[in-house]
Write a structure and sequence with these properties.
single chain, mainly alpha, two-stranded antiparallel ribbon, flat
Length: about 160
């Protein structure tokens, strides 16, 4: 049972002349390109021009500020105490409006209920639930062990 094992010949990649790894291009090689060179020169010129204009603006601003005496700022009409008064007044007015609205709306609902209208108030009475006989026949079919859902109407209790 001796099997001969065939050994594969592995060539060293360093000795293979077909396998040459080129170094990545350097920045100098890229800068030698005319399009890239034109772009970089234009970018430097625009940056220098922008810096010069900004320095000119800063100098003009310093001169203008030096000529004008610094006036004290007027005291603001909004301080903490004023803001608290405004917030408190707004809260009181809002609460008063909400109570007044509910009072007016509540009296309108009561008059509508007395006239036989539909109430818009939230339901305050419990819903009466009745169990249905699940062994009853409906149309010749038994319901079996299923839940029976029937539409119900809530009667307004006055």
């Amino acid at each position: 049972m001796s099997e001969q094992v065939k050994k594969t010949v592995i060539k060293d990649r360093a000795e293979n002349p077909d396998f040459i790894i080129a170094p990545p291009p350097s920045r100098d090689d890229l800068a030698a390109s005319t399009d890239v060179e034109k772009y970089l020169r234009a970018k430097e010129a625009v940056t220098a021009n922008d810096r010069a204009e900004f320095e000119d603006y800063l100098n003009q601003k310093r001169q203008r500020d030096a000529l004008q005496p610094e006036a004290p700022r007027p005291r603001s009409k909004f301080d903490r105490r004023t803001m608290l008064k405004v917030v408190t007044g707004t809260a009181i007015a809002g609460e008063t409006a909400a109570l007044g609205y509910s009072w007016v709306k509540g009296s309108a609902d009561q008059s509508a209920m007395q006239a036989g209208g539909v109430s818009t108030q939230p339901q305050r009475h419990p819903i009466i639930r009745e169990l249905a006989d699940s062994k009853a026949d409906i149309g010749g079919r038994g319901l079996g062990r299923w839940i029976l859902l029937l539409p119900t109407t809530a009667a307004a209790c006055g």
